[in-house]
Write a structure and sequence with these properties.
The complex is a heterotetramer of chains A (185), B (278), C (68) and D (377).
Chain A lengths: L5 E9 L4 H15 L3 E8 L7 E9 L13 E4 L2 H7 L8 E5 L11 E5 L1 H8 L5 H15 L9 H10 L3 H18 L1
Parallel strand pairs in A: 1-4, 4-5, 5-6
Antiparallel strand pairs in A: 1-3, 2-3
Helix pairs in contact in A: 1-5, 4-6
Chain C lengths: L3 E6 L9 H5 L5 E2 L7 E2 L10 H5 L5 E6 L3
Antiparallel strand pairs in C: 1-4, 2-3
Chain D lengths: L3 E6 H12 L3 E4 L6 H10 L6 E4 L3 H13 L4 E5 L1 H17 L3 E9 L5 E5 L4 H6 L8 E3 L4 H18 L2 E7 H5 L1 E6 L41 E3 L13 H16 L2 H4 L2 E4 L6 E5 L1 H16 L4 E6 L1 E3 L3 H10 L2 E6 L5 H7 L6 E5 L8 H13 L2
Parallel strand pairs in D: 2-3, 2-4, 4-5, 5-8, 7-8, 12-13, 12-15, 15-16
Antiparallel strand pairs in D: 1-9, 5-6, 7-14, 11-13
Helix pairs in contact in D: 1-2, 1-6, 3-4, 10-13
Classes of the chains: A alpha/beta (185), B alpha/beta (278), C alpha+beta (68), D alpha/beta (377).
C-alpha cells in the first residue's frame, strides 16, 4: 500500500548520549545541503540524563507530512533497552546498528551489525564523543548500502557537524566522526 | 508654577466612594501631595491598582493608570517598568491585594528590586467584600470570617519587605499624616523597590467587629498604639512601630538589565552552545 | 499680631465622620450627631492644618488671611 | 534581500517569528515543553533592546504582559497546560483592557501535570473559553515549523490590529520537531494604531475603524486609564447596563466582524473528496499523510487543515462537509474540535479519530478508521 519514498532513521539510547544532536546534524545535512525535505523529532522522558531517549529523522525528496518514522530503514541502538524495542521491527530491507560493547542480547528479526562504539569513543577521548563515532559509522554504512541511499553524504554531514559544534570541540568531533567512518570503510 | 493635589486628583470625581471615616482618602491626598511636591508630570506617572476598596483609588487620578486583577498589581507594574524605566510606577494595594493573594508577587518584586513604589493601605481586613480576615489581621481579631477571633498570625509587611530585599521600607498611619507624606515622597524618590505600609482604619468592618465603633475611635486607636520606638512596635501585639525600617541604595532591575542590553550582542556570541543539542 | 485663618468646609463632600472635630487642638469646630461640622471658634484656629490633613474627603481647607 | 534558511525546532521558529514581528518583551515561567522559547528569548531579546523577565509564576507573567503592552511593547509569553491554566485569569485582563499580546501554549498531555514531555491537543476549548465571562478570542494553530514562524507573525499582527490577546496553540510534537524554515521577510508587520488629535480630548476606549480603539502608550502625551473592570470610552468605571452591553458586544464584534480576515485554513485534495478529514496541528500532518496514502490507493480523500481555530471557520467547514460522503476529525483528545464540526454538519455523520495515549496519531490509524466508516456509508 505504502510506496517507500522516505528514508527513515531511528537513533535510540539513553538521555545524555547526544542522539538528538546527531539527529539534528543528519536532518540539517539533508535539508540544507542536499535540497531534501527532512524532519527530525525526538522523544524523551522527564529526566535529562539516563532515561530512554530517541531521535528520529525522516528524509524524502517529497514533502514529509507525517513527521515520525513508520517503518525504520536504519536504527541505531545504543542501549539494551532501545535494542529490545527495535529488534523485532527490523524488516528485510532495514538495518540495525548497535554498540557491541554494551548490548549483550542480540536476537534480531533482520540484519543487525555491531560495532565497538563505546570502546572506540573511550580510546579516542571519552564517552562525550560516543554520538560522533556513531554518526561516522552511519555515514560509512550509507556509502555501501543502497537501502539507506537517502542518508546524507559524508560531505554534507561534515558541513552540518561543523555548523552544529562549538569551536572548541570542532576538531575533536570531526576526529571522532572520521574514526567512526573508518570503522566501516 | 508649583503644583497642588488637584493637579493629580480630579476634583469633579469627588466625593470618594469610600465609607465615612475610611482613611483611603487621606492616603490618596498624601500621594497627590507627594506628586505635587516632587513636581511629577502626570504623563510620566503610572498608577497600577489591584482589587479592593483601595484598588478604586485610580478612579480619582488624572495620571496614567492600570487597574488590574486581584493581587496582580505588582506583576503588571513590573511589565510597565521593565519596558519603560523612565516612568514613575506606583502600585496601590490593600493588605489583601498586596501581601495575601498577591504575596508572591510582593516578595519577588522586592527581591528583583523593581523600581516601583508600593503603597499599601493596610486596614487588616477585606473591606470591599464585607470585612473578612486577611494576611495582616492581628490575632485574635474579629472579622466576618473569624467570628471567634482570628487564629492566624499576621504578616508584618515591613519585616517581610525588608527580608525580601526591598531597599526602602517604612510604616506610617493615616493618623500620622506628616510622616505619611514624608515616607511616600522618600519612597518615590528611592531608586528600587520601595514600600510604605500605611496602617489604615476601616470603621465599617474592622472597627465595628473590634469595639472601635467610630472613625474617631479608630483614629485614637492608631494614636495610642503607634510608637516611634521601633523595638517596642510589635504588630503581633497590636502595636505598630512607625518609621523607616530600611533605607539603603541597591542597583535596581532596570539599571542592571540596561547593562545587559548594552552588551548582549557581544555576550551572546560567547555563550557556549549546549553540546547535547537539546 | 496674631495670624488669622479662614476655614472652609465643602459640605457636599463631607461625610460627617467627625475626625476634624475630634482632633482639633483648639476646639474650633462643633458637631451634632450626623451633621456637617460648624466652625464655631474661628479665632482660636492656629493654622496647624491637622483638620485638612486628616480629612478623608479633602473637604476642609484652612487659609491664612491678614488680620483686619 | 536574501532570506535565511534554517533547520529549526518549532519552538525556535516561534521565537524567530516573534522577533520578526517586532516582539520586544517576554515574561514567562519555565515549563516543559515550551522552555526553549524562554531560553532563547532571554538570549535574543536584550540584543535587540528588548526585555526578558522570568516571573514568579504564570499569573504574574500574564499580568506583566498586559503592563508591558500598555507601556508600548509587543509582548509575548510561552507556556504549557498547567501554566496556561494559571494564565487564564489575566488573559481576561488582556481582553478587557484590550492589551495586544501573544500567548504560546505548547500543548502537553494532561489533566494537571499529566505527562510533561508528551504531546496532546486537548486545550482547544480552554483556549476558547478558559477565561471567564463572555468574550471572543483569536487562536492560531501551526502544523509545521514554517507555520510556527509564519503564523507567529500573523498572531502579532492580529493582536496589534484588533487589540486583543492571541493564543498560539502549538503542541509538543511541533515544538520539538526540526524542519527547514525560511525566515521570510515578505509578511508585512502590522503595528497598533496610535491616536490622533488633542491629547486632552483623548478617550482611550473610543472605537475607531473596525470597532478597535486607537492605542496610546504610557509616557506619551495621551494620558489614559485602562481597567480590568467595566469601563466606558474614558477608561473610567461605568457600571450602567447600557454601557456593559455596549462594551461586551464590541469586544466580541471587533473580532467576529473580521473573521474572514482572521480565518486561515489550507485545503489538500478537497475538490473531489469523498472522505474529508478536518484537522489541525500535528494531527493534520498525520491526516495529510493519510490523504496521500489513500489517494495512492484510489480513495478520494482530502483534508481541511484549520490554522485559525478561533473564530472557527464555520462557512468553509459547512461548504466542504456538504460535498463529502464522510467526515472524520482526527485530534489528540477525546473530541473537542469535532463538536464544532458537528454543529455545522446538517446531520451528516462526523466521526472522530481520537488518541490520548500521548503519542502522535499515525496515518494508519486514520486510514483504518476511514475505511471502517466508508463500509457503513
Amino acid at each position: 500500500m505504502f510506496l517507500k519514498t522516505r528514508t527513515e532513521i531511528v537513533l535510540a539510547g539513553v538521555g545524555g548520549q547526544g542522539l538528538i544532536l546527531i539527529g539534528k546534524i543528519i536532518g540539517e545535512a539533508a535539508a540544507l545541503f542536499e535540497g531534501k525535505n527532512a524532519v527530525q523529532t525526538q522523544s524523551y522522558g522527564v529526566a535529562s540524563r539516563g532515561g530512554f531517549s530517541k531521535s528520529e529523522v525522516v528524509i524524502s525528496d517529497e514533502e514529509v507530512a507525517y513527521p515520525e518514522v513508520l517503518e525504520p530503514d536504519l536504527v541505531l541502538a545504543l542501549s539494551q533497552q532501545s535494542y529490545d524495542m527495535y529488534r523485532s521491527k527490523i524488516g528485510k530491507d532495514s538495518l540495525l546498528i548497535f554498540d557491541s560493547d554494551t548490548i549483550e542480547q542480540r536476537e534480531c528479526s533482520g540484519k543487525a551489525i555491531g560495532y565497538q562504539i563505546t570502546s572506540t569513543a573511550v580510546n579516542l577521548h571519552s564517552m562525550k564523543i560516543l554520538n560522533m563515532i556513531a554518526l561516522g559509522i552511519l555515514a560509512g554504512l550509507s556509502v555501501s548500502r543502497a537501502n539507506i541511499a537517502g542518508f546524507p553524504s559524508y560531505d554534507s554531514l561534515k558541513k552540518s557537524l561543523e555548523q552544529n559544534t562549538p569551536a572548541q570541540y570542532k576538531n575533536l568531533n570531526l576526529e571522532a566522526f572520521e574514526t567512526g567512518y573508518k570503522l566501516v570503510n | 508654577m508649583s503644583k497642588n493635589i488637584f493637579d493629580y486628583i480630579i476634583e469633579d470625581r469627588l466625593p470618594f466612594f469610600w465609607c465615612e471615616g475610611c482613611g483611603n482618602g487621606i492616603i490618596l491626598k498624601s500621594i497627590a501631595q507627594a506628586f505635587a511636591d516632587l513636581d511629577l508630570d502626570p504623563k510620566n506617572v503610572v498608577v497600577v491598582t489591584g482589587i479592593g476598596c483601595w484598588g478604586k483609588a485610580d478612579d480619582y487620578l488624572s495620571t496614567n493608570s492600570l487597574h488590574v486583577t486581584h493581587g496582580r498589581a505588582l506583576a503588571a507594574a513590573t511589565g510597565v517598568k521593565a519596558v519603560n524605566p523612565d516612568l514613575k510606577v506606583i502600585a496601590l494595594m490593600g493588605d489583601g491585594d498586596g501581601v495575601t493573594i498577591g504575596g508572591n508577587h510582593f516578595i519577588h518584586a522586592a527581591r528583583r528590586n523593581m523600581d516601583i513604589t508600593a503603597i499599601i493601605s493596610n486596614n487588616f481586613n477585606y473591606g470591599m467584600t464585607g470585612g473578612q480576615y486577611s494576611g495582616t489581621t492581628p490575632e485574635p481579631s474579629f472579622t466576618s470570617t473569624s467570628r471567634y477571633g482570628s487564629v492566624e498570625p499576621p504578616f508584618d509587611i515591613c519585616a517581610l519587605a525588608k527580608a525580601a530585599g526591598a531597599p526602602y521600607v517604612a510604616r506610617a498611619t493615616v493618623y500620622h499624616v506628616n510622616l505619611l507624606e514624608k515616607y511616600i515622597k522618600n519612597a518615590i524618590l528611592k531608586k528600587g523597590f520601595s514600600v510604605v505600609d500605611v496602617i489604615n482604619i476601616c470603621p465599617t468592618y474592622y472597627g465595628r467587629f473590634n469595639k472601635l465603633k467610630s472613625p474617631v475611635d479608630m483614629m485614637n486607636w492608631l494614636k495610642d498604639n503607634a510608637t516611634t520606638k521601633l523595638e517596642e512596635g510589635n504588630i503581633y501585639n497590636n502595636k505598630f512601630a512607625i518609621g523607616e525600617f530600611a533605607n539603603e541604595d541597591k542597583l535596581d532591575f532596570s539599571t542592571k538589565y540596561a547593562r545587559i542590553q548594552k552588551n548582549a550582542r557581544e555576550l551572546s556570541a560567547h555563550l557556549e552552545q549546549d553540546l547535547s543539542g537539546k | 499680631m496674631k495670624k488669622q485663618y479662614t476655614i472652609s468646609i465643602n459640605e457636599k463632600r463631607c461625610k460627617k465622620c467627625g475626625i476634624c472635630v475630634a482632633f482639633c487642638p483648639k476646639n474650633v469646630f462643633e458637631i451634632n450627631i450626623n451633621t456637617v461640622p460648624r466652625v464655631t471658634a474661628p479665632d482660636a484656629c492656629i493654622g496647624c492644618n491637622w483638620c485638612y490633613l486628616r480629612c478623608p474627603e479633602i473637604a476642609i481647607f484652612v487659609e491664612k488671611r491678614e488680620a483686619v | 534581500m536574501t532570506q535565511e534558511v534554517k533547520f529549526l525546532q518549532g519552538n525556535e521558529a516561534c521565537l524567530e517569528g516573534a522577533l520578526k514581528a517586532g516582539a520586544r518583551f517576554y515574561a514567562g515561567y519555565p515549563i516543559t515543553p515550551s522552555s526553549e522559547i524562554a531560553e532563547m528569548a532571554s538570549q535574543r531579546l536584550p540584543a535587540v533592546g528588548g526585555v526578558f523577565i522570568q516571573m514568579e509564576d504564570e499569573l504574574g507573567s500574564m499580568a506583566a504582559l498586559v503592563g508591558a503592552s500598555m507601556a508600548g511593547a509587543k509582548a509575548f509569553t510561552a507556556t504549557s497546560g498547567p501554566g496556561f491554566s494559571l494564565m487564564q485569569e489575566n488573559l481576561g485582563l488582556a481582553i478587557m483592557t484590550e492589551a495586544p499580546c501573544v500567548v504560546i501554549n505548547v500543548q502537553r498531555s494532561g489533566p494537571s501535570t499529566g505527562l510533561a514531555t508528551k504531546p496532546a491537543q486537548a486545550d482547544v476549548m480552554q483556549a476558547r473559553w478558559g477565561t471567564h465571562g463572555d468574550h471572543a478570542i483569536i487562536t492560531l494553530c501551526p502544523t509545521s515549523v514554517q507555520e510556527c514562524y509564519d503564523l507567529m507573525i500573523y498572531a502579532f499582527n492580529f493582536s496589534e490590529k484588533f487589540r486583543t490577546p492571541v493564543i498560539f496553540l502549538s503542541d509538543e510534537i511541533l515544538g520539538h520537531m526540526r524542519e527547514k524554515v525560511v525566515l521570510r521577510d515578505d509578511i508585512p508587520v502590522i503595528n497598533r494604531t496610535f491616536p490622533q488629535g488633542d491629547p486632552k480630548q483623548y478617550r482611550p476606549y473610543k472605537p475607531g475603524d473596525n470597532k478597535v480603539p486607537p492605542m496610546a502608550y504610557f509616557g506619551s502625551e495621551y494620558i489614559f486609564h485602562a481597567s480590568s473592570s467595566m469601563h466606558d470610552e474614558t477608561g473610567y468605571p461605568n457600571n450602567t447596563s447600557q454601557n456593559a452591553d455596549k462594551v461586551i458586544r464590541r469586544l466580541y464584534e471587533k473580532i467576529y466582524d473580521h473573521r474572514d480576515e482572521i480565518s486561515i485554513v489550507k485545503e489538500f485534495e478537497t475538490k473531489d473528496a469523498d472522505v474529508l478529514f478536518i484537522s489541525f496541528g500535528s494531527a493534520a500532518r498525520s491526516s495529510r499523510e493519510a490523504v496521500n496514502m489513500m489517494r495512492k490507493d484510489g480513495i478520494k480523500a482530502g483534508l481541511l487543515q484549520i490554522n485559525t481555530i478561533w473564530p472557527f471557520p464555520d462557512r468553509k467547514v459547512q461548504e466542504l462537509i456538504s460535498r463529502a460522503k464522510v467526515v472524520l476529525v482526527p485530534e489528540l483528545n477525546l473530541g473537542q474540535i469535532i463538536n464544532e464540526v458537528r454543529k455545522l454538519s446538517s446531520g451528516k455523520p462526523v466521526f472522530g479519530v481520537n488518541k490520548v495515549d500521548s503519542t502522535i496519531i499515525t496515518p494508519y490509524e486514520i486510514i483504518d478508521k476511514a475505511k471502517e466508516v466508508l463500509q457503513n456509508v
